[in-house]
Amino acid sequence: MSMEIRYAQADKRSRTQQETVNTVAWMASTSKTKLPGHDGPGVKVHLLDGGSFSTASMKLLHKNGSSEPFRMYDWCFLIHHRPSNRYVLWDLGCSDDYSVYTPWVNKCMLPYANVVGPLKSLKEQLEYLGVRVEQIDSVLFSHAHWDHCRPISQEFPYAQAFFGPGTKGFCSPGHLESGEPSYEVEWDGRWFGSQQHVTENWTEFEGTWVPWGTFERALDYFGDGSLWVIDAPGHMPGNLAAAVKLQSTDEWVLLGSDCCHSMALLRGTEEMATYIGEDGEVKAYLQQDIPAAHKAIDNIRKLEADYGVHVALAHDATWMIEQTNSVLMSLLDDNKKGVCLTLPIKAHPKYPEQITMGLRVGVIGPTGFGGSYLCVELIRRGYAIRGISRTPEKLGQNPAYTPCSIDIEKASFEDVVEVLKNLDVLVNEYGPHTAGEHALEYKPFLELTRKIVICAKAAKVGYFVMVGGCGSLHYPGSQFSTCADTKIFWLYYRRGIADSDAHVSYMEERLGSMGTSLRDYRNARLAVRQGNSDPAAEKLIDKYEHTVMSNDSALEFVTAGRTSFMFFDGNTSFRWTYVSPPALYRSGLRTGGYTIVEDELPVKPAPEGHEESDLTGRMHGISAADLAIAIADEIGNQKLVGKHWSAYSDMSDDTPTPSYVRL
């Protein structure tokens, strides 16, 4: 998984200001005041990849933050206390296995954050470090939020978990108290429920709490001053930070968790994002107690300034991007550190070599709907991505991502060939113009597809992946007619997408006024179904469906998509595969599963007594995230060379999700 640099972008200091702030912070480390435990043996700390949120919003972090989605990382840490040979984890990050989360998290958090687990599981990361899961004796949770905490009994069977004081009182009784899992309760009953529901071995920290540095309460975890668990209220009750003394350098690092969510907030160059609650009070999106949170942030600032403590926050990547703090960079694996320090922007802290070892994949249309999801998926797998479009930089910045700005329509064939040279794979995610002079036109799309094919062959691209539309797929029950040839298909298609709130929301986000008319059509159909119909609703339905059958604005482009398949079908002069998404292709959850169908539109079996050509309620769909998985798998396996195929997945969740993701 690669690094996001938007934290650095969000901090709007000039370069001079940036260097001044860094200089002040690092100068403090040379004149630091000694902290309790300075004579202790210290610990070895490894940063672990805990996954990320694909579509986080800076508006939730910063008062003047952008609403454009960005990738927010989720770090956790392995702590090794050599004198006792104990291995302890600080937080767990996110998981790809959504079943470990409560129904509330699955309903209210995952669809909006588009959570992905780490590139390699914690078990794999630990094994890479020579540590077995059975050796983990404790998991210290900074707090009880789902992106830091999950049940451990299966993952770390011999470990005991610890939470901060006050956690149980705040989080009990959990989501299982009624006997059935509740969709309305955030807190996990497997931790905080009644005795019959608890599955996890845990306790709250107990012992002697003493002042440490600028904080009033801290607990000496190992008893020798190597690891201090710090009471740091603000984010939520029971919130903790941890201070570790590194055995290799005697330097102190504060694992700040969610005391603060970005270095811009810590430096004071951005203000905390707030809103007015229903009770009229000012509230923060990410901090429950604003005064306490400000105090915790101030304490951390003073730890830096007065004691030379180095700060690693749970969701911040600034120090990896800047690579100026050698103490924090030492948290990366020793045998990778030299490689990491040569990269201008830090990528994946544990597997940086994958940036160059992976396939070189070009993606035409990297900032669009399908293209953005595909780029994110490919970067997660360690591929080097070349984003090709007029404004490829909009996807974001990443060491595994090289933006190549070119207008393929206007550029010469020679210039396009140069951009495509040395690619192992080229994916064409180019979509039609939805506005302007050539909006949804037949000929411009065909001419551009032809140009790309010619240039890809001239550039000797190893494998061409064409992402077209469903118009080229055979209509169910017909050997010769495609969906584009079958007018009634478009009526079934419009009805199918109108039945999904998520699909209509997706169309509104992408197509503006076209999506608005679809929303009106959906509302009218719902009114008829619910018995609330009126002549105006029925007239709207009739008019909309008449337009679909007689003059659908998208039909010209869809026909062009069908015709573009002719450049590929039976062509043995280059290696290709042609992907046609199913009818109900939209943004949605990343389920991780899919089913391949060759040549035909994916549909459910016709009910007994129904015509095969009747597609009412039968069309399959797939989310952009799941189709990205299918395409990425094909890029890696290349088992469908020379094939025309589609894929579908579980689309039962109808929660609207963002149409675009960013690095």
- What is the CA–CA distance across the termini? 10 Å
* Assigned CATH class of the largest domain: Alpha Beta
Shape from CA axes?
A: globular
- Write down the CATH topology of the largest domain: Metallo-beta-lactamase, Chain A
* Fraction in beta strands: 15-25%
- How many separate domains make up the residues? 3
The portion of residues assigned to helices is 25-40%
Helix- and strand-based class?
alpha/beta
- What is the rounded Rg? 27 Å
Major β-sheet strand ordering: 18-17-16-19-20-21-25-23
Low-confidence stretches: 1-31, 335-357
Instruction: Compute the average pLDDT.
Output: 86
* Number of DSSP helical runs: 22
Could you tell me the number of beta strands? Answer: 25
Supply the CATH superfamily name of the largest domain.
Answer: Ribonuclease Z/Hydroxyacylglutathione hydrolase-like
Taking the sheet with the most strands, its summary is:
8 strands, mixed
CATH architectural arrangement of the largest domain: 4-Layer Sandwich
Please give a handful of descriptors for the protein shown.
seven-stranded mixed beta sheet; RibonucZ/Hydroxyglut_hydro; metal-binding; globular; 22 helices; single chain; 31% helix; eight-stranded mixed beta sheet; NAD(P)-bd_dom; 3 domains; zinc
